[in-house]
Amino acid sequence: MRLQYLLLPAFAALVFACGGKGKEVTSEITKAPDTASNAAEWEVLFDGENLDAWHQYGGDDVGEAWIVEDGMLHLDASNKDENGAVIGGGDIVTDEVYNDYELELEWKIGPCGNSGIIYNIVETEDNDYMWLTGPEMQVLDPCHPDGKFYKHRAGDLYDMIAADSTAVKPAGEWNKIRLVVTDDKVEHWMNGQKVVEYAPSGEAWMAMVADSKFKDFKDFGKSTSGLIGLQDHGDPVWYRNIRIREL
Question: What's this model's pTM, rounded to 2 decimal places?
Fold first, then answer.
């Protein structure tokens, strides 16, 4: 689709982490603009009825544990194998590749649950998991063990930049997400607040990756476009109202 560029209001100063540990800084809280008047520009990725725009990462059809019910997409994590993996689960990704876009969705998580929104994914046979190439906006209930770790909490650029942890709502409540991804800048918004902002390429980005758990993954963070994925982390999670538009 070919869309007009979205005119965004001026944002807070660019915030990123680089160099040694302890230099990570969260972005200033900023209110999200009203996008309702431009609804005709949106492409629906999940309409509450089917998963026609999605497939299992590295596979074909979405696993049967991803259930469409009552207008929501629910990962039913109640049935697991001997290794703790959800039977019929697995990470799911969009069929289409996206570049320079704005994504909106809502999520809620089960008690002490974990999931993630991963983007700029490059799906290849060389990478068994989508998180080997794409950065993650963390989806988490604060009581999950990861909630104790700086840069592993809800809204964070996982393991690289910490978000404002006060923006997240607890398990069972919907969190509204806005993700803005371009070649020059990425923004994480949660419940009307901009909680992370960074440049996805350049020296500062390379330094941030080198100081993270992704440093040994040769393809991680190399692309500023790609598929968008929802993570099966073994816990029940719900998504709804997933839509995207190009910028």
Answer: 0.84
Gyration radius from the chain CA atoms:
17
pLDDT digits (tens, 9 = 90+) for 84-143: 999 999 999 999 999 999 999 999 999 999 999 999 999 999 999 999 999 999 999 999
Give the single-character DSSP code of 82: T
Q: What are the structural domains of the chain?
A: 44-79+87-246 (2.60.120.560)
